[in-house]
Amino acid sequence: MPLLRIEKLKQGGMLGLWQMTEHPSCDERLWKEVQSLFHHEGRQREYVCVRLLLRAMVGSDLVTIDHLPDGKPFLKGDARAVSISHTRGFCAVLLADESCGIDIEYVSNRVDRIAHRFMRADETATDTLGRLLVWSAKESLFKLCSDDHLTYEQMRITGYEAGIAERPNDVSRPILLTGENLSSGQAFAIRAVLTEKYVLTWCMSK
C-alpha cells in the first residue's frame, strides 16, 4: 500500500499523503464506482487513491466524499472539513475542525513559464522552487477562502527567501509562510514542505 504518511498536526487537523502507483481496479468497490464517473485512467486513479487515503486516515469506509455545486468537497459521516489535492504521482488530504486548504504540485520548471499569471509584483521569488512554492501556497489559500473567489492578485504570499529550499523541512517541522487575503484583510499561516519530487502546502482558518 503506497501510503506515505498520516500526520496529526501540532496546530490541529490531520494530513495524509499517498503515492499513486496502483491501478484503479485495486479496490473492487471503488472500481465499480469510478468506472461510471470517469473513463480516463488518470482520473480514475486520482478518485480511487484519494478515497483509499481517506479510509486510512479515518479508519472506516463509511466516511465518503461528496461535493457542493461549486465543486468544494465535504465529508458524509464525519463533521470535519476536508481539502483534497493531487498532482503527478501523489495525492494529499487535509482534515480539520475548521475550514482548510491543501495543495500538492510536482516539481517542474513549467511554473517559470506561467509565473506572470500568478505572481504579484511585490512577491520576490525568482527561482523555480520559490515560484512553485508561491503558486502552491496560493492554491491552498484559495481553497481556504473559497467563498471569496479570490484572484491571484488578491492573494499575497510572504516569508519566502533565497535558500529556503535547502532548510531541513518535513510535515512535522514545515517551512512557515504567510498568506494574505487582500480582499478581506485577513492573514493566515501557510505551512510548506519541499522535496525533490513535490511541493506541499496547507493552511487552516485558525
Structure write-up:
It is a single chain. With 206 residues, the chain is α+β, with helices and mostly antiparallel strands. Helices cover 25% and strands 33% of the residues. The strands form three sheets. Strands 7-11-10-9-8 form a five-stranded antiparallel β-sheet, with helices on one face. The model has no long low-confidence stretch (mean pLDDT 94). Helix 1 crosses helix 2 (41-58). It has helices spanning 28-35, 41-58, 110-113, 115-118, 128-144, and strands at 3-8, 14-19, 64-67, 73-76, 81-87, 90-96, 100-106, 155-158, 175-181, 186-194, 198-204. It contains five helices and eleven strands, in the order ββααβββββαααββββ. The longest helix has 18 residues, at 41-58. The radius of gyration is 17 Å and the shape is globular.
Key attributes of the depicted protein:
206 residues; alpha+beta; five-stranded antiparallel β-sheet; four-stranded antiparallel β-sheet; 5 helices; 11 strands
